[in-house]
Records
---
Amino acid sequence: MNVTHTAPSVTLSDFYAGEWSDSLDEAKVNIDVRLAYAKSGAMSLGRKVDEQITTVLDSTTQSTITYTVTSSAAIQASLIEMVEALDANSVPNDGQRYGVLTPRAYAQAMTVESFASSDYVGANGLPFNDGIPGHRRFRDWMNVKWCMLPSLPGQGTSTAKIFVYHKNAIGYAIQKANNNVASSENISADITWHGDRAAYFINHMMSGGAVMIDDTGVIEGNLNDTTAIATS
């Protein structure tokens, strides 16, 4: 079968996100400030993971597809062309294909009837019921799970980039994190009292890195992300 057995290598980078919570400030509000900072820190490092992964997606050597947004028909054709590029590379169509779009690119896609209408998108895809409640979920169209990601390269500019890819085309490595308060996930959290400052320090930390495994499974699209949403 001529299977390639080359192990990809990735260097883990360290990241921290911390915030002070003054004890007397906490006494003046009726919310759990430490919990709010803990959630904020975790989401901050989550965005860092997104950034690392999209940087790797942006390194694909596959031909770039132009995402044309002049009309709904052109938008639909562009989305189909990106999926077609995966098919042409013999990327498995096994339910593990993903598409990430900028907020404007996603809004443009919503002008496509077959993308937005329940007549074409099944009941499971329309209400975005796959994913963590309250967090990013996916719309299943052409057997690709589509979502909006605001941190894509060039977002909001004339040189924005979007991607479709197979889950196994990229990898993400994390440090070992046994018995931490993040339930052994890659983001650890620590809340420590500092008497010299009469405050708690809410800190988050992680080590991680993304790597390309097979760039034939990553297709890039480019678009002018400043173009008005198509009306026809």
---
Amino acid sequence: MAFSWRILQRPQDEEAEVQVRAAGRADAAAVAGMATALSRAEGGFPSRFTEATYLRDGFGPEPAFKALVAERDGDLVGYAVYYTGYDTDTATRGVYLADLFVHERVRRRGVGRALVGAVAEACRASGGRWMFWSVLRHNKVGRRFYKALAPELKDVLVCAAFGRTFDRLADMGKGGG
């Protein structure tokens, strides 16, 4: 799968072409590096998503995710990680966009839109009808970007269980209890 968009390098410059393609094994170091940059930009802990975890979890008989990369003049400038889901209310497949990152030097030039569009097209090509993502409440720039694509859901709260909380939930399943 490969997609091509024309984007502006800078508002006053000529257009440059961006290629969006499926990420491969050879992209492991670059994708892991961008994941670390995303974690830092969000003010979180350093990402545990390394070159090794990318290769382990992104490939093989049951990959945990799919990834796309945006490339300009042979340079990787962004990536998206997503995985499939299912909605029982609509009986439809879709995807959850887990990560979207574009290097600062090419932001506001259409790269993020190209990546989101390519994820949506890949979803639709596999029979999907929806796409979900989340954004940190304090990420005002990200929220503006996403609001231009689709509305924020006002009646949905996202809940999450990690670490000890997750272990407690998993332990509740032992013996049906």
